[in-house]
Amino acid sequence: GFVVDTPGFNRLDVTVIERHELAWLFPDFRPFRDACRFDDCLHRAEPGCAVKEAVARGQIEPARYDSYLDMLAEIEQHRANLYR
After folding, report:
1. Where would you tag: which of 2, 32, 38, 72 has the fewest CB atoms within 10 A of its CB?
2. Which whole number is the average pLDDT over 57-66?
3. 72 near 19, Cβ under 8 Å?
4. Which residues make Cβ contacts (< 8 Å) with residue 8, sequence separation at least 6?
5. What are phi and psi for residue 7, nearest 5 degrees?
């Protein structure tokens, strides 16, 4: 699916998304996801990440990747707060 800018819509709740599912919502990651060294790659700090390599080569916009990392952090922070 796609998110559309709509009047009155000011926040996307990503906390209902599982962290390993988030990359599937970024169509520009699709050509690279399956080439990662690890099947459970979160595309953040893992060695052999094809998504990070694509960002470095200019095949994925850095702003898109930064947006992904922000959402991933929000999901993980939410999960951490659930179990305090």
Report:
1. 2
2. 96
3. yes
4. none
5. -55, 135
Per-residue burial over 30-44, b if 16 or more Cβ lie within 10 Å, else e, is eebbeebeeeebbbe
What does the alpha-carbon distance between residue 29 and residue 59 come to, in Å, rounded to a whole number? 9
Identify the band that residue 76 occupies on the pLDDT scale cut at 50, 70 and 90.
Answer: very high
Q: How far is CA 55 from CA 4, 42, 75, 78, in A?
A: 24, 14, 22, 26
Distance CA 2, CA 30 (A): 14
- Quote the tokens at residue 12: 């996307």
Which pair of tokens denotes residue 14?
A: 């990503």
Tokens read off for 59: 């095949």
* Residue 55, amino acid: V
Give yes or no for residue 4 having a pLDDT over 70: no
